[in-house]
Write a structure and sequence with these properties.
With 560 residues, this protein is α/β, with parallel strands linked by helices. It has 22 helices and 20 strands. Strands 11-12-14-15-16-17-18-19 form an eight-stranded mixed β-barrel, surrounded by five helices. The model has no long low-confidence stretch (mean pLDDT 90). It binds ligand C2E and calcium ion (2 copies).
Length: 560
């Protein structure tokens, strides 16, 4: 059962107080005060928990009028309904009470039925008003005054239902790196920016659509459909956005979802618009994208890859391919890189270039990498057993792996499980991992080296690592990124930077491997500048382990 509502009776005469208590006590919890001052103290103690006040006017210490005017000025109490109890039937007292903010009045002597009736109806009226105020609070976004997301969805549904013959688009917008704006310019400036954007939308959408702030820096509008969106329209808005505050160079992306009758919910429509916006994230100069079937199937594919990853691991759908590495000087096979492949039961072999970034985002990469390491070590163990050359194999170690506290122990356990010494497993760590959070990574990698693992810095030259930093990095091998080699080939040898890098690497006692060697020309250039090793399609593509073993046998026989 509901708790009894609280009523405060303010009356200096004990008899009258007693009477009122008697009338009300069955239905309500009654609190008593003998003057205005005492009543204020009770209010302070019970706060907003009081549903109604019955107030006498003439009282010692603090009279009813003074109490009323204090009450009405305080936002915390001003909404509590007040019934003034008057002695006479004279209109003047009652009018004065009403003008001070009383809601109603009752005359003495008290008639129980009338008092109970008035009290009940005032309490229910005021709780209705409270609900209405709450609703309007939820209807609008506090900061910008636009609709809230929930209310927007309701409104948009209404618009769609009322205009079955019209077509609409759901457009959303997203500011790139909004968190950075918050951090650099501070919250007041970022808020000003958001309010400015809200104003722009309000003006644009006016009577023909609805708009809202969905969350943080994301807005959504439902507007009449058009076929002819062009980039300039959005560039125009973006210019206005950049003029709102001192924040310049804001990049914003818009996604358009043309509403159709496929039964999607408002949330789904918004998600699709957002997906379109996110599909052009980082694409310079492109401000908007329309959600279409290609995007939809891309999204479904991504989803299915993610849905299938755990069972794929359990069902051993992941395999490793090996790509050989050679020494340039004498063409000797010096090792291999293990590259994961997903042999999907429906779609066949899937490229890691597609699924690895997904797994890096959702964290699954650490599980998959551990699996690959185990497979690579399994292969090495088998080679040792079968009397193959004791070549090393390198595995990729992703950023998420290095951030794990137990990474060194995990890798050590892995090689030990297969009876290998750590130097048989080379660890390829991407250059950008080093530049991101230098301190911790350097420590971890140093530890791994002490344990005996060989560290290869992968994709060197693709990021922003400075040469200066290189001297402090715990690495053994530098793997030059494929793009580095390609851009080098566009210049004459003496003008290239690669020569310089190799000289520096010599000085730092690092071995240099060039990745992605595809042509004889490239190989010759690498030979010229004294690069140590190569890996690339010119020699061999990544291949199944059996093929690699066959190749090893051949090499072995040739040498003999
Ligand atoms: P990566 O580590 O830079 O690996 C080299 C990629 O270049 C491989 O692509 C390889 O097949 C390709 N490649 C080798 N030689 C040539 C060439 O001459 N020309 C061209 N155009 N490409 C060449 P792949 O196997 O598709 O792997 C792509 C990326 O996926 C890898 O780049 C690596 O970042 C990631 N990856 C692959 N396997 C794993 C894994 O087991 N764990 C983690 N964390 N990442 C992996
Ligand atoms: Ca690699
Ligand atoms: Ca690489």
């Amino acid at each position: 059962m509901d708790e009894k509502k609280k009523i405060l009776v303010v009356e200096d005469q004990a008899i009258n107080r007693g009477l009122l208590c008697q009338i009300l006590a069955d239905t309500y919890e009654v609190l008593e005060a003998e003057n205005g001052q005492a009543a204020l103290e009770i209010l302070k103690r019970h706060g907003g928990g009081i549903s109604l006040i019955l107030l006498d006017i003439i009282m010692p210490v603090m009279d009813g009028y003074t109490f009323l005017s204090i009450l009405k000025k305080d936002a915390a109490y001003s909404a509590i309904p007040v019934i003034v109890t008057t002695q006479s039937d004279g209109d003047s007292n009652e009018l004065a009470a009403l003008s001070h903010g009383a809601t109603d009045f009752v005359a003495k002597p008290y008639k129980p039925q009338i008092i109970l009736h008035r009290v009940a109806s005032l309490i229910s009226l005021s709780s209705l008003q409270k609900t209405a105020a709450m609703v309007s609070l939820f209807q609008t976004d506090r900061l910008t005054g636009l609709y809230s997301k929930e209310y927007f969805y309701e409104k948009a549904k209404e618009v769609l239902a009322q205009n079955p013959d019209k077509r609409y688009d759901l457009i959303c917008s997203d500011i790139e790196n909004f968190k950075l704006i918050n951090d650099i310019f501070g919250i007041p400036t970022a808020d000003k920016l958001l309010c400015g954007i809200a104003d722009l939308y309000r003006k644009h959408v006016d009577a023909h659509g609805v708009c809202c702030r969905v969350n943080a820096d994301r807005f959504a509008c439902l507007v009449e459909h058009r076929q002819d969106y062009v980039n300039e329209m959005f560039v125009d808005v973006l210019e206005k956005v950049n003029a709102i505050s001192e924040v310049k160079n804001i990049v914003m992306k818009w996604g358009v979802y043309p509403v159709n009758s496929d039964g999607a919910s408002m949330e789904q429509m918004y998600d699709r618009a957002l997906l379109a916006a996110q599909s052009i994230k980082g694409t310079y100069g492109t401000c908007f994208a329309v959600y279409d079937d290609a995007l939809r199937s891309q999204m479904l594919r991504t989803q299915r890859l993610k849905d299938g990853m755990e069972s794929a691991l359990a069902e051993k759908q992941f395999e490793i391919y090996l790509q050989p590495k050679y020494r340039i000087q004498d063409g000797a096979l010096i090792g291999a890189e293990a590259l994961v492949r997903w042999n999907h039961p429906e779609w066949g072999f899937q490229s890691p270039a597609e699924f690895i970034p997904l797994f890096e985002k959702n964290g699954f990469i650490t599980k998959l990498d551990q699996y690959v390491w185990d497979m690579a070590c399994g292969v090495l163990e088998k080679w040792d057993r079968d009397g193959f050359l004791p070549l090393p194999v390198s595995v990729n170690v992703s950023r998420a792996d290095i951030h794990q506290a137990d990474i060194a122990q995990r890798l050590l356990d892995t090689v030990r499980r297969h009876g290998l010494s750590p130097d048989r497993l080379h660890l390829e760590i991407t250059e950008s991992a080093y530049t991101e959070s230098t301190g911790q990574i350097v420590e971890t990698v140093e530890h791994l080296r002490e344990l005996g693992f060989i560290i290869e810095m992968d994709d060197f030259g693709s990021g922003y690592s400075s040469l200066n930093m290189l001297s402090r990095m715990p690495v053994d091998v530098l793997k030059l990124d494929m793009k580095f080699l390609q851009s080098e080939m566009e210049r004459p040898a003496q003008e290239g930077v690669m020569q310089f890098i190799i000289t520096l690497a010599r000085f730092l006692k690092l071995i240099v491997i060039a990745e992605g060697v595809e042509t004889e020309e490239e190989l010759n250039r690498l030979r010229e500048i004294d690069c140590d090793c190569v890996q690339g399609y010119y020699f061999a593509k990544p291949m199944p382990v059996e093929a690699f073993e066959a190749m090893m046998k051949e090499t072995f026989t040739n040498i003999r």
